[in-house]
Design brief:
The chain has 222 residues and is α+β, with helices and mostly antiparallel strands. It contains 8 helices and 9 strands. 41% of the residues lie in helices and 20% in strands.
Length: 222
């Protein structure tokens, strides 16, 4: 399956359906919205007149139906359903001192970037990191060692619930060492919650299937 922009909606808006409702992610506004399926279908058709006035105002304010609106710098990609966990399939090697130092630098870079950039700019930065990874040549460091190094740093410097910081930091570390990865965002309802994690194809790099399973993917960046 894949997360994609809804019919008639711009590329910076992604959606997914959960329990008869449709959740939207607007990366320019950095906001999630939720609609009943009937209203979402009307929106997808461009039938704005049938929507409630408050919803029409929201759509107009966010320029969802304005084809001339300035677009996002980032773009979404197809999402592969996660089926494997890195921690279950690969030996988690003891990280070297150099890898740990690199992990600390990537974490600092991620903190700085999250603090200073808007959400769309942050996602564009992730894509730029992957572009850099493509030009790095053969990876100079074992990926399992890098992941172990970042997990070591996490224990001292990041709360476990800081999924965006954890994922952005690890993505930067991997890219700096020649490894691409996909940043995936998911949502669930009752209560509403958003989560993100890193994947490489169907392999989860920094989480577990048990943890990400309840979340319906809504957008991915690579």
């Amino acid at each position: 399956f894949s997360a994609k922009a809804s019919l008639m909606l711009p590329s910076w808006v992604s959606s997914c359906e959960i329990d008869g409702q449709v959740v939207f992610l607007d990366v320019l506004a950095n906001r999630y919205s939720r609609l009943e399926k009937e209203a979402a279908s009307a929106l997808g058709r461009g039938d704005v007149d049938s929507l409630q006035p408050s919803l029409r105002r929201l759509i107009e304010d966010r320029h969802w139906l304005n084809s001339n609106a300035e677009g996002a710098r980032s773009s979404c990609c197809a999402i592969t359903r996660p089926a494997r966990e890195h921690s279950a399939e690969f030996d988690m090697r003891s990280p070297s001192g150099r890898q740990i130092a690199s992990a600390f630098r990537s974490l600092a870079s991620a903190r700085f970037t999250i603090a200073l950039r808007g959400f769309d700019e942050l996602l564009w930065w992730v894509q730029r990191n992957n572009t850099i990874a493509q030009t790095e040549g053969p990876p100079a460091s074992n990926r399992s060692g890098l992941i172990s190094a970042f997990e070591y740093v996490e224990r001292f410097a990041i709360r476990r619930d800081r999924c965006l910081l954890r994922s952005i930091g690890l993505q930067h570390l991997l890219a700096q060492n020649g490894y691409e990865s996909t940043l995936v965002f998911g949502v669930r309802l009752h209560p509403f919650e958003a989560h993100c994690w890193l994947q490489d194809d169907d392999l989860i790099l920094n989480d577990t299937i048990e943890m990400v399973g309840p979340f319906e993917p809504i957008r991915a960046v690579r």
